[in-house]
Amino acid sequence: MEKQAILLSSKLFQKHRQVEVVLNRSFLAWKEIEKSRKRSSGISPISERVHSRGVQVCEILAVGKAEEDNQDNTKTRSQKKAKQHSQRYPHAFTVSYVRRTRLHQWRCADATFHCASQELCEQWIKVINEQLSLLTNRPKSLLVYINPYGGKQRGKRIYEQKVAPLFRRACISTDVIVTERANHARDHLKMEANLDQYDGVVCVGGDGMFSEILHGLVTRTQTDRGVDQNQPDAKLVPCSLRIGIIPAGSTDCICFATVGTNDPVTSALHIIVGDSQPMDVCSVHHHDIFLRYSVSLLGYGFYGDVLTDSERKRWLGPARYDLSGVKTFLSHNYYEGTVSFLPAEDTMGNPRDKLQCRSGCHVCQHKPSLKDKQWEMSVEKEKTDKDGSSWNVIRGKFIAINAASMSCACPRSPKGLSPSAHLADGTTDLILVRQCSRLDFFRHLLRHTNKDDQFDHSFVEVHRVRRFRFHPQHQEPVSLEGLSESPKKTGFQAICSQQTGCNYSTANSSWNCDGEILPQVAIQVSLGF
Ligand SMILES: CCCCCCCCCCCCC/C=C/[C@@H](O)[C@H](COP(=O)(O)O)NC(C)=O
Ligand SMILES: Nc1ncnc2c1ncn2[C@@H]1O[C@H](COP(=O)(O)OP(=O)(O)O)[C@@H](O)[C@H]1O
Ligand SMILES: [Ca+2]
């Protein structure tokens, strides 16, 4: 590896230990040199033990003058020694940096260095800050939306206690909006927010709140650029602002599946260092009318019914999903319909290849470019127009139809609904669970929580697809009113689905779209901007 030029190097003190601190463009290292005398057979050689530590510059959160330690904590000998040193060398700076703890979990650590003079201390702060200012992907100004009612209703506290102090430490300025109603954040982003002044938007909440913010931002971007997102063939303009997620919801699958954990501090640190992860966005239409976007789960049958039932138990917090899960499992409903899908090319891997998508994943990086895609789409159109040969059509009775655009990993299911799904490959994994016995379905569900393959059942099939359509066997009432909006939550559909009558509500389930119920059952789904 090429050796980098040293930008600054000094002998400083960390507590009472002398350390050699070296900074180059990508790394800050400090080496403690401990001199100890070994007495053996009358000879006293001086041996040097070197403890070396360091941090990549891109993982330094901030550097600044150290706060004076006025506490009288000098109980032990080493504390006394450290105190004496800090009095002798009062000019000190503190480097805050990312420390990796458990798997995927990040914490903020501080290292304080005492300098022989004020000039040296200021020089260190200046040189490190200069290097940090070269990291242009870091946000300086953020717009934060907090859903105070998400998850266990701890969003506000989580933000104030765990996240805001870190943003302050990293000198990130924030405008914070605590939402007062559902869709407050979406409407504010759509119509009011002055987005030019921010480098990103932060969502403090769950998957539903993320979805709100995504819709606000995407709609605003299209409006600003004169694109009509209701046109099914409209080429959407990508958003220039990134969305950071501070998990404070019930499932937090979008955060868990992208970061690897649902921990507010880890997420705040990823935001500060400017990490980003592209993700697939599915567009959902009903008869060519735009309904919603989805980034995680589009689920019909089981997950639709769980969500419909759980909405009336919101007061229970995240436990509502457990209760509704058991209830839905016991009702053991199945739904008839036709699923048609356009498979992804073989080069996109397959849902059972056991490859996990990670940051910098090569499948996502080498997905077909827009140009290839346009070509592909014209071929696809030709084929379908002639004989429909590239579309697969499956008619059947399904307990669940799940489209996972990402793994949908969450604390309940650490591998997720489709463990090998890619975050940004332009495909979704379509999982069809056909009518089976309760015991078989239980076995299938259980495999979401352990290492066994949940697709290894005769009644389950999974396809990696670019587009799909669903038509329920039983006609839904024709109503174009209220499209693109959530249905009124009267609970009507849920109550009806418990009965065995023969109206459409009984025969059909609903789609769970990232935690929101879709108002329509017949849908067309396509991926990619
Ligand atoms: C025998 C035990 C069986 C346990 C099976 C566990 C499987 C769990 C798989 C969960 C996959 C969740 C996908 C994420 C969906 C979210 O978008 C949505 C909304 O999340 P939010 O409430 O907004 O955080 N949550 C649900 C439960 O539908
Ligand atoms: N102030 C608010 N009052 C009521 N509902 C809200 C508010 N802010 C956001 N919401 C809505 O709450 C729903 C659930 O939010 P989310 O943060 O995902 O929590 P959870 O994971 O518990 O479902 C979302 O659909 C969102 O639109
Ligand atoms: Ca995907």
Automatic annotation (TrEMBL):
Residues 68-88 are annotated as: Disordered. Residues 77-88 have a biased composition (Basic residues). This is Ceramide kinase. Residues 137-288 form the DAGKc domain. SUPFAM superfamilies: NAD kinase/diacylglycerol kinase-like. PROSITE patterns: DAGK. The lineage of its organism: Eukaryota, Metazoa, Chordata, Craniata, Vertebrata. One of its GO terms (molecular function) is ceramide kinase activity. It comes from Mastacembelus armatus (zig-zag eel). GO terms for cellular component: membrane. InterPro entries: ATP-NAD_kinase_N, CERK_C, CERK_PH, Diacylglycerol_kinase_cat_dom, Lipid_Phosphate_FormReg, NAD/diacylglycerol_kinase_sf. GO terms for biological process: ceramide metabolic process.
